[in-house]
Amino acid sequence: MTTATTALPTGTWVIDPAHSEVTFKVRHLGLARVRGEFTSFRGQIVTGESVTDSTVTAEIDVASLDTGNENRDQHVRSADFFDADNHPTMGFRSVSITPDGDAYRIDGEISWRGYTVPVSLHTEFHGVGQNPANNDATTLGASAEATINRLDFGVGEPGNAILSEQVKIILEIEAALQS
Predict the structure, then answer these.
(1) 11 to 22, 31, 45, 71, 176: CA distances (angstroms)
(2) Residues 90-131: pLDDT tens digits?
(3) Total-model pTM
C-alpha cells in the first residue's frame, strides 16, 4: 500500500482482519510479559467531515484467543478467566475522538462479561492510500494502545501474584472504504 494522502475521506470503513492485529500483553508472576492475540474480530470506522465527527465500533470473538500455548489458551478461555462460553464477544464503541498532539485520543467503552468500562485509546493515524491487493481499495491505517484493568471486567481475583491486573491492548488496523 502506498500512502497517497493524509486527508480522510468521509464514509464507512470496514476493518480488514487479514491486515490488522488485536493483541495484548500482561505480566506473569510480575516478571515477564505474556503476549496474545485475538484472531477473529470485526469493526468499522465511520468518518465525518472532521476526524472528531467520526465513530469507531468493533467486536472481538473472545474464544479466538491465541497466546501460542494451547494449554494456557484453554485455561484463559475457561470460567477461571474469560468464561468464553458464556461471554463470547467483547465490544467497543467510541464516544469521542479528540486531537492529542500529533495523534488522537479515542474515548470509548468496552462491553464484556456484563460490564461496560470506559477506555481511552492513544491512536496514531498513518494515512490513506490505495491497496493493490484489494482492487485498489482506498485504505486507512492506524495504531492504538490502551491499558485496562482485568478486574473491571470481573476477570480473575484481586491480589493475584500470578497475573498482573493491568493489561495492555495494542491495535494495528487497516480498514477499507466501503461507501
Answers:
(1) 23, 45, 8, 42, 10
(2) 999 999 999 999 999 999 999 999 999 999 999 999 999 988
(3) 0.88
